[in-house]
Amino acid sequence: MKKITVLKTVLIMLAIMLVSCNDNYEPTPVAIKDVNGNYKAKQIVSQGNTGTERINEFTAKDSVITFKDFPVKEIVQAVVKNPVKVETALAEMGKIEYKLNYTSKLNLNNNTVELTFLPKSLNLKIPVDGTMKNTVVILAGKQKGYFVGQDWSLRFGVIAEKIMVDGAAISPFEIIKYDFPYCLKN
């Protein structure tokens, strides 16, 4: 008797759930200007088998994403090598601002704005033993980014594919990935 009562209860609950489902999903319309705003982002920086996660903030406005504190620790480690000197150099350098250019295109089928990145090189002066290492980081946007209308989030990534120090490329060098898988507007 208990089995039949439980079975009836489960079937009734299932019927209620099916009746209450709404198949009239209406996507939230997006516009290119919706990308503009201040974001709080999950940032994953990885190189080879190692990676770090943290929360970072940036602003998107008029086809430019501006980071007030772009992550450069892995870049400095590639140049300096000595862990103690890396921390000293990072402290002396302070926060690094970086502007990432993009073009945008509306994708009405997916209710998204597609971003194509046009990164400029990042020029750094890294202090090491009383001298400055002129460092140029070649960044690339290999994948499109997306502003998603459903949850008003932005998702993108770029890579550092080459580092030049005083005109010479660091070799061997393993690319550094900068992934921002989930960025929410503040």
Automatic annotation (TrEMBL):
InterPro entries: DUF4840. Pfam families: DUF4840. PROSITE patterns: PROKAR_LIPOPROTEIN (PS51257). Residues 1-25 form the signal peptide. The keyword Signal applies. Keywords: Signal. This is DUF4840 domain-containing protein. The lineage of its organism: Bacteria, Pseudomonadati, Bacteroidota, Flavobacteriia, Flavobacteriales.
